[in-house]
């Protein structure tokens, strides 16, 4: 049965050479486009990561407190007494906007 199907397929390819060639070229082109899009996405993602890292730096440690946070003296002590000059604070909180009916939006 498989031999019969193979024969029929070969006969079809011999009769329709241009159509078969276009089929192979179309599939190859489709695969190439998908790979190119994937490579472009990976490259853009890596470029974004590198630019973010060069601007913000790479974090190695994180100190977090509860909802009340901690005082500014803790940050000052980290930079002066511990000598971690490359440290930077991240401030997070909620903001209310009177023009929007005191709606709360989380801002980082």
Structure described in brief:
By secondary structure, the protein is mainly α. 58% of the residues lie in helices and 9% in strands.
Helical content, roughly? 55-70%
Query: Strand sequence of the main sheet, in spatial order?
Result: 1-2
What structural category do the secondary elements indicate? mainly alpha
Radius of gyration: 30 Å
Essential attributes:
mainly alpha, 58% helix
Can you offer a commentary on this structure?
The protein is mainly alpha-helical. The chain has two domains: 1-58, no CATH class; 60-108, no CATH class. Helix content is 58%, strand content 9%. The chain contains three helices and two strands; from the N terminus they run αααββ. The protein has helices at residues 2-15, 17-56, 72-80, and strands spanning 93-97, 103-107. The chain has a two-stranded antiparallel ribbon. β1 and β2 form a beta hairpin. It is elongated and about 85 Å long. The N and C termini lie far apart (67 Å). The model has no long low-confidence stretch (mean pLDDT 83).
């Amino acid at each position: 049965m498989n031999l019969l199907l193979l024969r029929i397929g070969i006969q079809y390819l011999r009769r329709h050479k241009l159509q078969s060639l276009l089929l192979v070229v179309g599939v190859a082109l489709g695969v190439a486009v998908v790979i190119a899009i994937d490579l472009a996405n990976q490259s853009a993602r890596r470029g974004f990561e590198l630019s973010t890292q060069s601007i913000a730096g790479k974090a190695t440690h994180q100190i977090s407190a509860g909802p009340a946070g901690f005082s500014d003296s803790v940050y000052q002590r980290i930079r002066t007494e511990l000598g971690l000059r490359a440290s930077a604070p991240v401030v997070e909180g909620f903001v209310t906007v009177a023009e929007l009916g005191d709606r709360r939006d989380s801002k980082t």
